[in-house]
Structure formats: C-alpha cells, structure tokens
C-alpha cells in the first residue's frame, strides 16, 4: 500500500512539474513577460554560472540510448519556475540546521549547506572557501610557476620582471579558518616559494593578514575591493619607479546594486550582501583594442550594470569587464615608446587603466583558458610586441597553481 502511495505521489509531483513548465512556456509564447527573479524565460543562470538546458529534439537513436529522456529531465529541472529561489531556500534550511548544531559548541564558522565548500563566518559576516592544504602537489605547482617565471626573466635581461600575488580568502594568513585544516598553506608560504626562485625578478609585497582581508576585500567575493586594488596599484607603480606619479583617487563615482559575490553564489547563500564601488580617476583618453579589435574605454569600465535586476549576477565583471585574452591600451599623452606587459587574472581588471597612465602602450594578457586564450605564451606576446620595458605578473594565490597559467609562462 505504501509503495502504491509513493508511486502515486511521484506521478503527481512529476505531472505538476511538467504542467508548470508547459504552462509557463505557453505564456511566454503568448508574449507575457515574467520578472527576472522568477527564472521563467531565462536562458542562463547567474547563480550556477551556466546556460540552461534546451528542449531536446527527439530522434530514434536518442530514444534508444536514453539520451532524450535524460535531456528532458535536465530541461524540466532547469526550466522549473523559481528554480534559483528553491536552491537558495534549500541551502538556507540546511545552513540553519548546521548553525543550530554549531553555535552551542562555540563554532562561529560553518558550511553554508551540507557538503558545501564555502564557509560562513557569522562573527564578521564573511564567506570564504576552505583554507588550502599544504601538499607536495601544490608546492610542486607553485615551484613550477616560480621557476618558469624566473626563466622568463633570465631570457629577457633587458626587461624588468615583477610579480604580485594578492591572497584569496583561502590563503589568508592568521585566518580563523586555518585551525579547521591540518597543514594549511598561507600567503607567506607562497611568497617564500616565489622569493626562493627569483634572482632576476622582484616579488612585490602585498599584505596577507586577516585584518587586511576584512578591510580591502569583499566579504562575499574573492576579489579585492577598490581600496585594496588601489593599494595594490600603488605598490606596483612604486616598484616600477613611478612613486612620484601616482594617479590620485577621487570620490566614489559608482555603486552597484546589491552584490552577492562568487562565494555567495558557490555557497547558495544570500544572507549577506554588499555594494561594489569604484572611485573617479583623472585618466588620459585611451585607445583600446580587445583581442585585436578597436573598442572604447567603455568596454573596460561600464558605467551601467545591464544586469542590475539579476540577483546573483557578477557585479565585478559587470563593472570592470569580462575576461579577455588580450587587451591593448594606448596612452595618447605618452610619446616615449614605453611598454608594459601586465599578465594576470581578473584582479588586473580594475587597475589596468591606472597602470596604463605610466606607459605609451600597455598590453594586458590573461593566459587562462577561461579567458579564451588559445595557448599563446608570455614569450610569444613579448616577441610579438618587440619586447617590453616592464613585465608585471598579477595573479591571486590560487591562480598561480593553475596548469594553464604555468604552461603559458614557459
């Protein structure tokens, strides 16, 4: 009897899901629009960072293999109304269970849901991935990057090489989470590995303590905020010899809609939000090329968030542009043939415009495959532009151990 009841409930539930999807699709075809937060009619999910499954086309082979049935299940699951809200609510309920059990024991930091890799610290309202563990494999990758980087510096003795690595939350020194992971590796360890391999290059220091993380990084995201980014820019500019020509920081000229960063998205967590902000800077009227195509400066710094109504949209890239393999910035106020190569990840996005003020030509190169790089190496970039005066590597600590980053530094 219980088995029949269970089967009946399953059929009823499946029918309800099917009818809700069919009903909303019919309303969409009738020209009826739904608010973005419902998820109805959306082609992509900002929360999960992917494109929704499309309705599959039936064929005899797909029926026989079972692919059509699997794709139909994916389509129904993806197009269920209020899908994102349901995922967040489920995670919130799980998080409530975890916090209820943790707080009496004195734990103020706990996973956002069962099996989550993101930890919420209720004491200071921050989200973070778990601290990285110091393993032989990780050290080998970091040492490979350091050797490759130093090899580049030796290959181009007329060029000055620099590296800076702002810490992601899981590499922050003296983080309250490090006690949860045996043999956690910190940013000081990364600096030691980099410094141990450098002879013809310079490691630019950036604070990596927990207090700096709270002050200069977003609470729900791994990126530095504009105050932290500006401090990073100043440290790089001073190392390059432009300490007397620092671009002055003006007042706040941009504030985003509510910002739920990468940690919030990965942790399915909306209990903390913040505002992404930017300052005004007096900069030249740059010429810009993105992947070889002429663009305007508006392509690098957006004054309007076109996805303001998408709750979990990436406010950082909405302001400072998405990932591009190559950007060339030309400064019309410089005529000294000076050239900078800035190699890095998304941490460069908000300060490339500042560093470009010191050179006639600035090339920004993101070697990650996620940025669309086709395997081009740093050496090939250097040769293509006939050399550079300065080369600056700027990667967060996690990116230094990526295989695509290591490969392109050879």
Description:
- There is one protein chain.
- The longest helix has 28 residues.
- With 410 residues, the protein is α/β, with parallel strands linked by helices.
- The protein is built from 13 helices and 15 strands.
- Helix 5 runs parallel beside helix 6.
- The strands form 4 sheets. The protein has an 8-stranded mixed sheet with strand order 7-6-15-13-14-12-10-11, with helices on both faces. Strands 3-4-5 form a 3-stranded antiparallel sheet.
Fold blueprint:
Elements: H1 2-29, E1 44-45, E2 50-51, H2 60-65, H3 67-78, H4 83-102, E3 109-111, E4 118-121, E5 126-129, H5 136-155, E6 160-164, H6 187-197, E7 201-203, H7 210-216, H8 226-239, E8 252-259, H9 262-266, E9 274-279, E10 287-290, E11 293-295, H10 315-320, E12 326-330, E13 339-344, H11 352-355, E14 361-365, H12 378-384, E15 390-394, H13 403-408
Parallel strand pairs: 6-7, 6-15, 13-14, 13-15
Antiparallel strand pairs: 1-2, 3-4, 4-5, 8-9, 10-11, 10-12, 12-14
Helix pairs in contact: 5-6
Task: For the structure shown, list the relevant keywords.
410 residues, alpha/beta, eight-stranded mixed β-sheet, three-stranded antiparallel β-sheet, 15 strands
Give me a quick take on this structure.
The chain has about 400 residues and is an alpha/beta fold. The chain has helices spanning about 1-30, 60-65, 65-80, 85-100, 135-155, 185-195, 210-215, 225-240, 260-265, 315-320, 350-355, 380-385, 405-410; strands at about 45, 50, 110, 120, 125-130, 160-165, 200-205, 250-260, 275-280, 285-290, 295, 325-330, 340-345, 360-365, 390-395. Strand 3 and strand 4 form a beta hairpin.
């Amino acid at each position: 009897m219980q088995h029949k009841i269970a089967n009946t409930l399953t059929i009823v539930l499946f029918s309800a899901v099917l009818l809700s999807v069919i009903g909303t699709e019919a309303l969409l075809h009738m020209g009826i629009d739904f608010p973005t937060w419902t998820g109805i009619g959306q082609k992509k999910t900002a929360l999960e960072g992917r494109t929704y499954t499309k309705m599959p086309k039936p064929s005899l082979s797909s029926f026989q293999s079972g692919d059509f049935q699997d794709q139909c299940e994916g389509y129904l699951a993806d197009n269920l109304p209020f899908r994102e809200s349901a995922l967040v609510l489920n995670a919130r309920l799980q998080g409530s269970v975890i916090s209820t059990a943790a707080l009496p024991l004195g734990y103020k930091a706990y996973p956002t849901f069962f099996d989550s890799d993101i930890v919420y610290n209720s004491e200071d309202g921050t989200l973070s991935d778990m601290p990285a563990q110091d393993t032989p494999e990780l050290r080998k990758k970091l040492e490979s990057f350091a050797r490759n980087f130093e090899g580049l510096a030796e290959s181009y003795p007329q060029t000055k090489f620099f590296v800076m690595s702002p810490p992601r939350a899981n590499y922050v020194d003296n983080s309250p989470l490090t006690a949860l992971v045996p043999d956690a590796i910190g940013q000081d360890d990364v600096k030691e590995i980099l410094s141990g391999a450098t002879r013809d290059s310079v490691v630019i220091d950036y604070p990596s303590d927990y207090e700096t993380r709270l002050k200069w990084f977003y609470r729900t995201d791994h990126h530095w905020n504009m105050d932290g980014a500006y401090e990073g820019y100043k440290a790089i500019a001073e190392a390059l010899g432009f300490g007397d020509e620092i671009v002055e920081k003006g007042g706040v000229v941009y504030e985003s809609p509510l910002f739920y960063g990468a940690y919030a998205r990965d942790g399915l967590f909306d209990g903390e939000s913040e505002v992404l902000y930017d300052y005004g800077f007096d900069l030249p009227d740059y010429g810009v090329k993105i992947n070889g195509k002429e663009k305007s400066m508006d392509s690098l710094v957006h004054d309007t968030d076109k996805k303001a109504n998408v709750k979990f949209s990436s406010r950082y890239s909405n302001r400072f542009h998405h990932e591009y393999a190559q950007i060339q910035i030309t400064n019309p106020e410089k005529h000294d043939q000076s050239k900078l190569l800035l190699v890095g990840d998304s941490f460069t996005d908000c300060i490339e415009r500042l560093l470009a003020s010191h050179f006639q030509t600035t090339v920004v190169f993101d070697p990650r495959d996620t940025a669309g790089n086709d395997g081009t190496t740093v050496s090939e970039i250097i040769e293509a532009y006939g050399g550079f005066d300065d080369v600056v590597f700027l990667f967060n600590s996690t990116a230094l151990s990526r295989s695509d980053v290591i490969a392109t530094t050879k």
